[in-house]
Amino acid sequence: MKKEGSFKPIFFVMVVSLIIAFYWDKIDFIKNSVHAVLNPSAGALLNWDVTFGMLIIVFVIGLVTTIVQKYATDQKTLKELKKEQKILQGEMKKYKERCVIE
Fold it and tell me: Sign of the C-alpha dihedral, residues 44, 50, 52, 55?
């Protein structure tokens, strides 16, 4: 049986981000390569207008994380969990009403 979704890509990105943050000032290659990639794009947006540039960057990051989350998780299992959660909430409400009446 093939497993449809996994948190491995998200975990990998998180670990790489932590490594970059930890070695930012210690290894010049990391800082220089990140600047080489982001200065032409994000740097240009922020130099153009800080508010709108930041809004565009946040929108792009949000869009990318949403797409990664959608395709890196098992959507079928999530839907089943939501259905089960609704059933359990209904039962909890029913029993809560019984306790209040008594």
Answer: positive
Residue in the block written with tokens 């929108």: 59
Instruction: Please give the model's pTM, rounded to 2 decimal places.
Output: 0.52
27 falls within a domain: yes
Q: What pLDDT shows up at residue 1?
A: 47
pLDDT at 85 over 90: yes
Q: For the chain, how many structural domains are there in total?
A: 1
How many residues are recorded in the chain? 102
Residue 56, domain member (yes or no): yes
Is 101 a domain residue?
Answer: no
Range of the domain at 18: 8-74
- Convert the pLDDT of each residue in 13-67 to its tens digit: 899 999 988 988 898 888 888 788 888 888 888 788 888 888 998 999 999 999 9
> In this structure, is residue 42 part of a structural domain?
yes
Residue 96 to residues 23, 82, 92, 93, 101, Cα–Cα distance (Å): 53, 21, 6, 5, 9
